[in-house]
């Protein structure tokens, strides 16, 4: 059995998939999902949650089966066939503008094996990087605290004149 790791996308409160019995909440936002590669239809809803325009899930580890991605594309491809949108201006004339679909782009990136998906989280920083950043912040705050008394004295001297 293959396994993928998925998590909640930003601004999402929870997700439930009855086909794989996966329940993801804010309390446990990342879970592993096991599936049989011969039955890609089991990942139908998880695939949609990852590839839709406003994703509910983020794929952290593993890859979705090609059959599952292709089935999703086939289901929604007809919605994105036109590359132009016809709009009516306020004066009543019709105009056209080109558009692209972020969802189809995301599906193509996933099929190509691109790890830099637009909604993937970055790896956590090293402890050394965090320590250096904390030291820089504390040094800046100390410099500000040292400058405050000198500023008060000069302000008092100006007020006395």
Rg, rounded, reads: 26 Å
Helix count equals 4
Strand order of the largest sheet: 4-1-5
Poorly predicted spans: 118-125
Would you give an account of this structure?
The protein has a three-stranded antiparallel sheet with strand order 4-1-5, covered by helices on one side. Helices cover 40% and strands 22% of the residues. The model is unreliable at 118-125 (pLDDT under 50). It is flat. The protein has two domains: 2-112, no CATH class; 125-161. With 161 residues, it is of the alpha+beta class. The longest helix has 34 residues, at 127-160. α1 (44-51) packs across α2.
Keywords:
single chain, 161 residues, alpha+beta, 2 domains, 3-stranded antiparallel β-sheet, two-stranded antiparallel sheet, 4 helices, 40% helix, 22% strand, flat
Helix and strand arrangement:
Layout: E1 2-8, E2 14-17, E3 22-25, E4 30-35, H1 44-51, E5 57-61, H2 66-76, E6 84-88, E7 94-98, H3 102-112, H4 127-160
Produce a short descriptive summary.
By secondary structure, the protein is of the alpha+beta class.
């Amino acid at each position: 059995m293959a396994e993928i790791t998925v998590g909640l996308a930003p601004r999402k409160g929870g997700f439930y998939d009855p086909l794989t019995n996966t329940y993801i909440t804010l309390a446990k936002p990342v879970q592993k999902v096991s599936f049989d590669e011969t039955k890609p239809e089991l990942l139908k809803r998880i695939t949609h949650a990852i590839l839709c325009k406003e994703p509910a899930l983020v794929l952290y580890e593993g890859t979705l089966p090609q059959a599952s991605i292709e089935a999703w594309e086939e289901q929604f491809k007809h919605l994105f066939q036109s590359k132009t949108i016809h709009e009516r201006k306020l004066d009543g004339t019709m105009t056209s503008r080109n558009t692209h679909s972020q969802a189809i782009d995301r599906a193509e990136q996933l099929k190509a094996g691109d790890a830099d998906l637009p909604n993937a989280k970055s790896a956590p920083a090293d402890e050394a990087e965090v320590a250096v950043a904390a030291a820089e912040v504390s040094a800046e705050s100390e410099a500000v605290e040292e400058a405050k008394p000198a500023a008060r004295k000069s302000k008092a001297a100006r007020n006395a004149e």
